[in-house]
Amino acid sequence: MTLTTTRPLAIHGIGVLATMDGTGPHGLGLVHDAVVVCRGAAIVDCGARGAVAIPSDAERVDAGGAAVVPGLVDCHTHAVFMGDRSDEFARRARGETYAQIAAAGGGIRATMRAVRAATVDALVAAARPRLRRMLARGVTTVEMKSGYGLTVEDELKLLRAARALRDEGPVHVEATLLAAHAVPPEAASASAWTTTIVDELLPAVAREGLASACDVFVEQGAFSVDDGRRLLTRAAALGLRPRVHAEQLSWQGGARLAAEVGALAASHLEHITADDARRLADAGVVAEVLSLAQVFLRGQRAIPGRLLKDAGCVVAVGTDLNPGTAMSCDLPLAAGLAVTQSGLYAEEALAGITRDGARALGLSDRGVVAVGRRADLVVLRATSPLALVYEWAEPLAAVVVAGGRVVHRWAAG
Ligand code: NIG
Ligand code: FE
What DSSP string describes 86-97? Predict the structure, then answer.
């Protein structure tokens, strides 16, 4: 065995460090003229220059007066998929709805056909450039769901692709089993497929340690609250944290279910009520605002982000990257849209893609810059951390550090 000692890494010349630790105006935890020192995969010192000693052997990154934020966390994606559904976007522009296209054999089932025909290697190759695009925007942690295989073997295949991407790095991947995404064509009913997931798939996923969470799409034409309860109760017993796609297209009671089972997060939430928001807050369920999906689908009502915040919910923001309802890797853009579409304050949206995004994944080691946290950091091509929510569709990461290593540098091109 060879023992390798890595040099410490020091980021200096930071104009303003947004620690996102909840202190100071709007909780941004700003430190001006700051330095961060990392050793191994952890932050070992940070604060104002003068209060922080830079080790003499440190590799130095000069931020040149720019802003620095924690590595961004995308708490909700369906990033492993194959195929092309641009035709559906065009059909919706002519007036067809998402539900009509799904009922006619398109939608999730169209991606399913492409995924079933693909190998693990092909799935990994398709997802890799998406992760690169995310990294160029400062994303260092990504949640990734299955849900396009819809047989026991094909769902395992998607999770194995997610695991291969995790092993490859540098972006950290958290995998979620979403076999209850659509009813497979071979299944007699949603309830019958739920039984297969409970009896066969969940034990296999738990045995191989392939996912840390289990999600369900509670919707008309997808899964009922009762299916979801049965699935998530079993998942929790096997150590997979529950998550719910709730009230996206219509009110079905998915948010209440999330509160009832103590889910880590409930997502979408276009159709929630004030009572639902209170239940989520009381149960400590993180609300995921997925604004790209809201604006990508025509006719979706705005997600009531302000209502969720005012009810006391922790609100995260994700891309929901998927070929049907959110064909974008742009997490900062999602945060900008969460401000203009859903009434989040700019600082809350920034928290939604850092600190609160990490909370949606149950990860307490990241999303905040502090001693002992994971050394995931982004030097921005901007002097204000709010540029991330304000300057749309521009990859703003100058330097990305993940696990204490420089893993990306912006190159003009
Ligand atoms: O989160 N709502 C269900 N699932 C995805 C869409 C998946 C697809 O259309 O491929 C979503 O929006
Ligand atoms: Fe989703």
Answer: HHHHHHHHTT--
Strand 377-380 and strand 315-317: the pairing is unpaired
For the CA of 249, the closest atom of ligand 1 is: 2
Render pLDDT for 78-116 as a digit per residue (tens, 0 to 9): 999 999 999 999 999 999 999 999 999 999 999 999 999
Report, as an integer, the average pLDDT of 164-168: 98
Distance of alpha carbon 287 from the chain centroid: 12
Ligand 2 centroid to 147 CA: how many Å?
10
Looking at every residue in the chain, the average pLDDT score rounds to: 97
Is ligand 1 within 6 A of the CB of residue 320? yes
Please state the domain extents for the chain: 9-70+368-409, 73-360
- Whether residue 408 contacts residue 397, with contact meaning beta carbons closer than 8 Å, is answered with yes
CA–CA separation, 165 vs 153, rounded Å? 18
Atom of ligand 1 nearest to the CA of 324: 9
- CATH fold of 9-70+368-409: Urease, subunit C; domain 1 (2.30.40)
Phi/psi of residue 122, nearest 5 degrees: -65, -40
Cα(327) to ligand 1 centroid in Å equals 10
So what's the architecture of 73-360 in CATH?
A: Alpha-Beta Barrel (3.20)
319 lines ligand 1 (CB under 6 A): no
Q: What is the mean pLDDT of residues 378-397?
A: 97
- Distance from residue 321's CA to the centre of ligand 2 (Å): 7
- CB-CB neighbours of 86 under 10 Å: 9
Residues whose CB is less than 8 angstroms from the CB of residue 352 and which lie 6 or more positions away in sequence, other chains included? 289, 315, 316, 317, 335, 338, 344
CB-ligand 1 contact for 108 (6 Å cutoff): yes
Asked if residues 204 and 241 have their Cβ atoms less than 8 Å apart, the reply is no
3-state secondary structure of 155: helix
Q: Which amino acid is at 16?
A: V
- The CB of 81 under 6 Å from ligand 1? The reply is no
Q: Residue 21 above 60 pLDDT?
A: yes
User: Which residue's CA lies nearest to atom 8 of ligand 1?
Assistant: 324
Cα of 209 vs its chain's centroid, Å: 20
**Ligand 1 pocket check: which of 98, 108, 150 to mutate, most ligand atoms within 8 Å of Cβ?**
108
